[in-house]
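Listing 4. Sequential folding, example run.
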Amino acid sequence: MSLLQTLVKPYSTVARLLDTVSPLFDLMVRLWVAWAFFKSGLVKIQSWDSTLMLFEYEYNVPLLSPQLAAWTGTAAELGLPVLVALGIASRFSALALFLFNAVAVHAYGSFLFSSEGAAGLQQHILWGTMLLITVFHGPGKLSVDHLLCKKC
């Protein structure tokens, strides 16, 4: 047995194991990032007056009135994570949530780029990266998209 064959066998075993658990990893990534945004949407609807005030005085959302930005942002935070979590139109919904995340960083940028907001900025970077995993690699086998594509 050559050195190459000796190295390939354990590598192949590990690769098969990772291939087996990768759909679970894909699902965990989708659920984690979806939960982060969904929780934020729930907070917004629990105190709508505070939400409107934040959009009027704190957030700097371009092109939209504060009221429209609040409604749109809350709808995005409640609807898109459900699609991402279930794996429905996954790449599109993950991309839409990624863009929403980018707008949130811009809208709240002055705070996020301060020393007090550095941890929040890191969270947004993590969420954006997790969303891009789904955008570029798809939702994985544990998704509605995979079931639908399998039947087509």
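-- end of first protein; second protein begins --
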Amino acid sequence: MDQKAAEQKPRISTLGQIGLQQFAPYLMNRIMGRYNATLRDDLRKQELTVAQVRALAVLSVTDGVTVNDLSVYTVIEQSTMSRTLDALEAQGLVRREAPENDSRVRKVFLTDDGRAEFNRAWPAMHVAFEAMFEGIGDAEYAALIATLQKMLGNIRLHDI
């Protein structure tokens, strides 16, 4: 590569140059790790895992989704989601059904007991959510959500 080409090639910053406290993926992982740890402690009392409550939460808003879509919504690998759904189904909190037109697909539905279990988990989730946004105004929150939605649009692999 000649000198002129080398000068035109953009230089990639190092993580050390950016710094952990300025590297958004690091901060997002720290935030979600702390949020999940807080929930994990509260959910143990209900004998639920964070993955199980994520599934119940999504189904409380978007019931009857496919297992694949539920994996995307919950950000849980499909193999882990299958085990999670096995446990939730054994507890009577969800049911899986094959649509009439495609027996290869399974849709997941929240049962009445599942909705009640999620409703018991929701207060702890909401308290952790509120604590995370303490001192952050409505405009800041709206700007954050808009930015996160743009970021997700930039990187997502699925339409959901």
